[in-house]
Hints:
By secondary structure, the protein is of the alpha/beta class. The chain folds into two domains: 29-192, Rossmann fold; 200-331, Rossmann fold, CATH 3.40.50. It contains 15 helices and twelve strands. The strands form four sheets. Strands 10-9-8-11-12 form a five-stranded mixed beta sheet. The chain is elongated, with a radius of gyration of 20 Å.
Amino acid sequence: MTPVTRAAAAAATVLLAATALAACASTPEAAPSGSGAPSAAAEGCGTFPLSLDHAFGTAEIPAQPEKVVVVTDVDLDIALALGVEPVLYPGYELGAWQAEAVAGLDLATYDPYDGIDFEAIAAAEPDLILATSGWSLDEDYGKLSAIAPVVAYTSEDGLDRMTWAERTELAGCALGLVDEADAVIDEVNGAFAQAASDNPQFAGKTITYAVIHPDQITYSSYVGSDVWFFESLGFTLPETASEFTGDNSGLSKENIDKLEADVLVVGYPFGDEGLLSRDELEADPLFQSLTVVKDGGYVVIGDDVASPIAYPSPLGLPWALDQVLPLLTDATS
């Protein structure tokens, strides 16, 4: 089971929202990921004791954490990117970028398929629980906070609004690794900036990103979604993107022509269980009539790549860039 499909099994509605964000999730008013926006972390980072306010209260961290538990894949990625080996993490099937990072490490896991294992977390005796993207915190925060301080997203809408860079900054603050977090963010930003510089043909071209879910075609690159992955490479959104929102991102088969752009990226994370399989979509006469399809601007990404784009993290983004960049280059050549 891939990261995307396992998340669907756990919470399909969360997956729809997250994938529609195209990652972990900004709005028109929110700053782009890694833009140098004001840090999500509180003042006083790097010194302890430290108090961090969040959507559920305040995390009181008396000393630099040494035993850290993570409860989501994104937080696992952030911890690993900062050089932290968590004492426990949810034992989902790892993505390729994660498997590479944990190779040689002896990390303990718990079975996450029935939800968070509070007993296992308590037994690990953590001094910090990293949950900046914990989608079930509205139900689980009380039990988690009784075990150890919880670093959660910073506002009620933070699960959707916080960018990967803000989550990384927040984790760096809580872990006493501020410089390391800044360096990680700079490295990811640098990789995308270099890719944009190497491919000036991307600049100004419109791009549409769609995901085929079991119950709908999701127009994921609507205005206000987190399309930093594509925009940081120089792409822009077509006018059609303004017709969709996070609450209205479904696209009917009869309106497939709204996918038109200079480049069209489509993900099929559910395979034949999607509303349309890849073969079915590509055989559709309306789809075949799209200029972007006829001109070779149609790009297909696998479920392994759809996951780190939907749930962006400092570990998954560079890996996804390596996979997608050659496809985008071919589509614009």
